[in-house]
Specification:
Blueprint (H helix, E strand, L loop, with lengths): L4 E3 L14 E4 L2 E7 L13 H19 L7 E8 L5 H11 L7 E6 L9 E8 L1
Helix pairs in contact: 1-2
Length: about 130
């Protein structure tokens, strides 16, 4: 059985359900999907999809940092969008956070709805 270690930080929003912000196991950190909640106000970032993408990625980054990692350690992400037409705008923001070579593998999906009315959710897997 793998040893599981929870990773959390107050620099990212608390989990809004029965899950951990991240779990380390077998040399990887699995970061739960991050919606664009501001960890201070608890509200969705205002300013459109770009602001929401930045906040989601700031939340992912904060959790990575709590484990001693950065976006450069990420090997896979999943991006969930309530409007697939936001794909290009999200790519522009995403490219500011992931600049390494090779880039992480990624999947992007359009979904009907996300928690708290968010337009985006991003999860990540990073190598420890």
């Amino acid at each position: 059985m793998p040893k599981l270690t929870a990773v959390s930080t107050s620099s990212a929003p608390s989990a809004i359900g029965p899950y951990s912000q991240a779990v380390a196991a077998n040399g990887f950190l699995y970061v739960s999907g991050q919606i664009p909640l501001d960890p201070v106000t608890g509200k969705i970032a205002e300013g459109g999809i770009e602001a929401q993408a930045h906040q989601s990625l700031k939340n992912v980054s904060a959790i990575l940092n709590a484990a001693g990692l950065t976006c450069a350690d990420v090997v896979k992400t999943t991006v969930l969008l309530t409007d697939i037409n936001d794909f290009a705008a999200v790519n522009a923001v995403y490219a500011q956070y992931f600049t390494q070579s090779p880039m992480p593998a990624r999947a992007a999906f359009a979904v009907k709805a996300l928690p708290k009315g968010a337009a985006i959710e991003i999860e990540a897997v990073a190598a420890l």
